[in-house]
Every structure is written in C-alpha cells, then in structure tokens.
C-alpha cells in the first residue's frame, strides 16, 4: 500500500524560490580580483539567477545541455549554480587548476555547449579554445578590462531576459550538475549529480549533527566551487538563507583571515593545506584578527590531529569530514557523540582526527581479501559506500570496476571502522605501502610527523625494496627558519609506531608536489625516489 503523500520532485528551483521568497535581504559578499568587495543581496542573486535561466533558454539551451563554468568563488558562480539547473541545463564546473590538455579533454568528453568564464581566466581558455567546440562563451567582468569582441558579455546575456520565465517541469532524477574527478589517481572521470541528490545532500549537510549550517551563519566556501560543488556549501547555504562571503581568487592566509574577520564568518570549509597556512599566520600574529568562533570543515585530505588542537587554542573548531567527487561529496563527518563525551581529551582528539560517522542516508562498509571486515578499529579494508547521493556510474563510461555487483561504490580508500562506527582513512589503495606483506598507513606516519613542532608538511610514500617489496620513505618540509634533523624526527616517531613501520629515511624537501586540489602528489614522489634502494644496503626492519 502506498502512502498518501504528494510525490513532489526534489529539485533545485525549490531551494532558489525559498531563498528569493524568505531571505531577500541576506547579503552575498565576494572578493574581486582587485581585492575590493562586491556586495549584493539574495534578492539580487535570485533575480539574476532566474535571468540567467531565462537567457540560457532563449539562447537555445535544451534540457540536459551542459554549460561549463571556469570561475573562482563569487556571486556570478553562485548565479550559475542555480540558474543553469533552473533552465534544465547541467552546471559543469571545470577545474581551472588543471592542465589545459585535461581541460580540453574534459570539455570535449562532457560535450559542453556554452561556457561562462571569469575575465581573469580568459587567458587560460585561450590555451584550450582551439581544441574544444563551444558554441558561445560568456565573460563575467570582475575587472575593468575590456572584453574581447570574440566573446560575449555575461551581463549582455542576462540583459536578454524579460522576466517572463517559467521553470521547466523538472524531474528529480534529471542531471543538475557535473564534475570530473581531479584525476589524482588516473584520467578524470565524469560524475553527474541529479537534482534529487543535491537537494538531499543539502538537507543532510545542514543537519545539526552534520555541518549545522543555518541562517544564523555567514559561510565562506574556501574550497573552490569547481571542486565537488564546493562540498555542497553554496547549495546548503542558499537553502537555509545563510549569508555568503566568497573569497574570489584570494586564497592566501591574510586575505582569508581579513574576510573572516570583516564579514564575521562563522562557517567555512577547505582542504588541510589552507588551514595549515592559516594557523601558522595566526600563531605569528595572534592579536591581529578578531574572529568569530568558527566551524571549519576540513576534508579532501586527512586533518592532522595537531591541526585540530592548534585551532582549538584559538577557539576555532575544526570539523573533519570525508567525501569524494563521486559522493556529492559529503559522506562522513567526525563529531564526538554525546555518549562518548566521557572520553579523555586525548581520546577525543584521536576521534576527531578520524573521518567520522556516515551522515544520514549514507552507508559504509570495509571490504578486505576475506570479504567484509569487522568494525574493530584495527582491520583495514577498502571503504565502500552507498546512498542517494553516491554515484552509481561514471558519465559515458559504462564499464567501471568502481561499482560492485551488489550496488556499492568502491572508494579506492583504505579504512578502518571502530565499534562506534567512526571510520578512519588509513590510505588510498594506490598509496598503501606493503612491506613484507603487511600494510603500513602512510597517513598515520605523516600525521604523526606533522605533529612535530618543526615540521610544516610531511608525505610518506613507498619505495621499492629488494626484500620487503616496499618500504616507507618520508619527505619533510621543515617550518621556515627552523632546523631539525632526521635523528630528531626518528626519535619522535619511535615511541609511536612499531619498528617496521618507521620510514627507512627522512628526506628534506622545499615543498611537496601537489595536485590541482592541493593534495600531496605521491605518485610524483614515488617516481622521484624509485631508485632509492638501488645504491643502498637496506637493513632489516621486520626483524
Ligand atoms: P581526487 O580523487 O582526484 O583526489 P576527490 O576530490 O574526489 O578527487 O577526492 C576524494 C579523495 O580525497 C578520497 O577518496 C580520499 O582519498 C581523499 N579524502 C577526502 N577527504 C578526506 C579526509 N578527510 N581524510 C583523508 N582523505 C580524504
């Protein structure tokens, strides 16, 4: 027997309409390339997003057509986030940090018809335009620079709208957005988000025990809007009517801290690299910024425990979360359950450094060689997830072994889950170090190293070994102006790990190579140090 409720589709225009109806006075602030602040209100955003939808339809956009964006985080990108899906199109956020070859590959693979681009990024587009097939390119003027007559102006596009706009009858399973994986571990793969997935993801992220985004917040997505929907923050913020303060292209610690202080930001999200830079700046000048007590969501890579502790000293709360492009992206979040509040301070920090418990409607399991692994906090296995905002396939890639026959998504991450349900990422499958048949977690080692006061960054990776197949090597970037030796770091690690886990060597680098999303590029380190053991006579760490 069916229930008697309405089968209202879960579609993005509901969120946009709600924002326009109830939160017209709420501000949207954006830092522009010249550092000045652009300000307008939700009423303007609502009007312009609908203008964009109407104008795109007039320009011939058909249902399901892809509209690419090459943009930083600001008001016009927010308009695209809602205006493109409201027209029945698919918002395809393109990662502007990728190599032009990859951008061309992605735009061609997605078959993008139109592009909306920041004026400051036109030089990037010029490097790919000979290789892609876009019908029209609309340039958003963030500076006074004239727009080349070769392109159209975004404002002129909006001006073609008359106000006579009606939403198409959207179905909730239609695609609203699209994002390619950044390709840390292979060729970029396209993920198509349905309206339904994004609406449910917004509801789940806003929940008190998830990210607790509400209309009392001022939210700053530092994570780029071309990276997994800026973790859904713009969608959730608009749904609840939160003030938004966008950083534009200025992601250095001082600009961000200025924005947090001036706009009284209470909620923000970004990768650990951003927060490492911020905490170092705060430690140098603790009195310079008057900040609100902020919740800072950290994901994309593991949040080292030392980082969580460091921000607590400033009254700023790191919220550790895990997700992927394929999971829209939020899938787990680490808060201390009330039933665990009796744990010691150290135990609580250790829990907060885990990636956390699945958010409502997401299920997780870990699978090892012998099948599903127990939730004992020790046994490692591949993390698999499922739920209404987890991809069930890649775009135009019918066969892919990322999806199991019984309906789970294989994340490619290796994890443990403890009896309380807290998941901990120990590695990516491709970054695992297998020494003498046993797995070593590179993440545990690097987080421990980053807990040393002299270490700014550390990456641990595998090098081939004649006897043990692989052994760990650590690359360390010391904090500016601080001296530290390999012996000191080794002595620091020794009490924390089994002997055979300790890196065979610690090498000092000026920087760790990074991906476009700011993650350590371990493939590059493995390549650089692959002959490490050829000239050496390595000892016997397992004895
Ligand atoms: P890419 O796969 O190219 O890095 P994604 O942005 O989709 O692109 O990244 C997802 C991956 O990032 C996850 O599979 C995981 O390895 C890593 N990741 C995300 N959040 C965390 C976290 N909190 N801790 C550790 N790793 C994380």
How would you describe this protein?
Helix 1 crosses helix 8 (about 235-240), helix 2 (about 40-60) packs across helix 3 and helix 9 (about 255-260) packs across helix 10 (about 270-285). Strand 14 and strand 15 form a beta hairpin. The model has no long low-confidence stretch (mean pLDDT about 95). With about 550 residues, the chain is an alpha/beta fold. It contains 15 helices and 26 strands. This is Long-chain-fatty-acid--CoA ligase. Its EC number is 6.2.1.3.
In short:
Keywords: Ligase. With 543 residues, the chain is α/β, with parallel strands linked by helices.
SSE layout and pairing:
Blueprint: H1 12-22, E1 27-31, E2 37-41, H2 42-58, E3 66-70, H3 75-86, E4 90-93, H4 100-110, E5 114-118, H5 122-126, E6 136-140, E7 152-153, H6 154-159, E8 175-180, E9 190-194, H7 195-206, E10 218-221, H8 233-240, E11 243-246, H9 253-262, E12 267-270, H10 272-284, E13 295-298, H11 305-312, E14 317-323, E15 330-334, H12 345-352, E16 357-358, E17 363-368, E18 371-372, E19 381-386, E20 409-417, E21 423-428, E22 433-435, E23 438-440, H13 442-450, E24 455-465, E25 469-478, H14 486-493, E26 505-508, H15 522-528
Parallel strand pairs: 1-11, 3-4, 3-5, 4-8, 5-6, 6-7, 10-11, 10-12, 12-13, 13-14, 25-26
Antiparallel strand pairs: 1-2, 8-9, 14-15, 15-16, 17-18, 17-19, 19-20, 20-21, 22-23, 24-25
Helix pairs in contact: 1-2, 1-8, 2-3, 7-8, 9-10
The structure holds adenosine-5'-diphosphate (ADP).
């Amino acid at each position: 027997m069916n229930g008697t409720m309405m089968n209202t589709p879960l579609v993005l225009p509901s969120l946009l309409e709600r924002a326009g109806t109830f939160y017209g006075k709420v501000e949207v602030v954006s830092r522009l390339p010249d550092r000045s602040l652009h300000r307008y209100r939700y009423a303007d955003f609502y009007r312009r997003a609908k203008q964009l939808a109407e104008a795109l339809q007039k320009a011939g956009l058909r249902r399901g057509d892809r509209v690419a964006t090459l943009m930083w985080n600001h008001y016009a990108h927010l308009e695209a986030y809602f205006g493109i899906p409201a027209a029945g199109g698919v918002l395809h956020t393109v990662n502007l940090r990728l190599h032009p070859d990859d951008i061309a590959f992605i735009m061609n693979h997605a078959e993008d018809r139109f592009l909306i681009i920041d004026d400051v990024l036109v030089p990037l587009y010029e490097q790919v335009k000979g290789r892609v097939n876009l019908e029209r390119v609309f340039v958003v003027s963030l500076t006074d620079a004239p727009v080349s007559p070769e392109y159209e102006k975004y404002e002129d596009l909006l001006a073609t709208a008359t106000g006579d706009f009606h939403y198409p009858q959207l179905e909730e399973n239609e695609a609203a957005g699209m994002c390619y994986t950044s390709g840390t571990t292979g060729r970029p793969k396209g993920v198509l988000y349905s309206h339904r997935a994004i609406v449910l993801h917004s509801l789940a992220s806003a929940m008190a025990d998830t990210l607790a985004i509400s209309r009392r917040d001022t939210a700053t997505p530092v994570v780029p809007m071309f990276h997994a929907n800026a973790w859904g923050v713009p969608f959730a913020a608009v749904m609840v009517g939160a003030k938004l303060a966008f950083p534009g292209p200025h992601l250095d610690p001082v600009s961000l801290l200025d924005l947090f202080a001036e706009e009284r930001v209470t909620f923000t999200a970004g990768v650990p690299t951003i927060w490492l830079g911020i905490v170092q700046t705060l430690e140098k000048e603790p009195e310079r910024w008057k900040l609100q007590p902020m919740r800072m969501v950290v994901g994309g890579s593991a949040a080292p425990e030392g980082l969580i502790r460091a921000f607590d000293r400033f009254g700023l709360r790191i919220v550790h979360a895990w997700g992927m492009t394929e999971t829209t992206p939020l899938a787990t979040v680490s808060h201390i359950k009330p039933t665990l509040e009796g744990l010691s301070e150290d135990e609580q920090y250790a829990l907060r450094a885990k990636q956390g418990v699945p958010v409502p409607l997401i299920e997780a399991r870990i699978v090892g060689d012998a099948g599903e692994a127990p939730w004992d906090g020790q046994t490692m296995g591949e993390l698999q997830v499922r739920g209404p905002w987890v991809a069930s396939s890649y775009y135009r890639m019918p066969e892919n072994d990322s999806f199991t026959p019984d309906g789970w998504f294989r994340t490619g991450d290796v994890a443990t889950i403890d009896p309380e349900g807290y998941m901990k990422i120990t590695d990516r499958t491709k970054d695992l170090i297998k020494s003498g048949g046993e797995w070593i977690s590179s993440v545990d080692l690097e987080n421990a190293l980053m807990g040393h006061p002299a270490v700014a960054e550390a990456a641990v990776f595998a090098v081939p070994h004649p006897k043990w197949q692989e052994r760990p090597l650590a690359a360390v970037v010391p904090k500016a102006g601080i001296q530290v030796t390999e012996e000191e770091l080794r002595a620091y690690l020794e009490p924390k790990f089994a002997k055979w886990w300790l890196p065979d060597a610690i090498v000092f680098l000026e920087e760790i190579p990074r991906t476009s999303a700011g993650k350590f590029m371990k493939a590059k380190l493995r390549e650089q140090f692959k002959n490490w053991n050829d000239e050496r006579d390595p000892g016997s760490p397992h004895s």
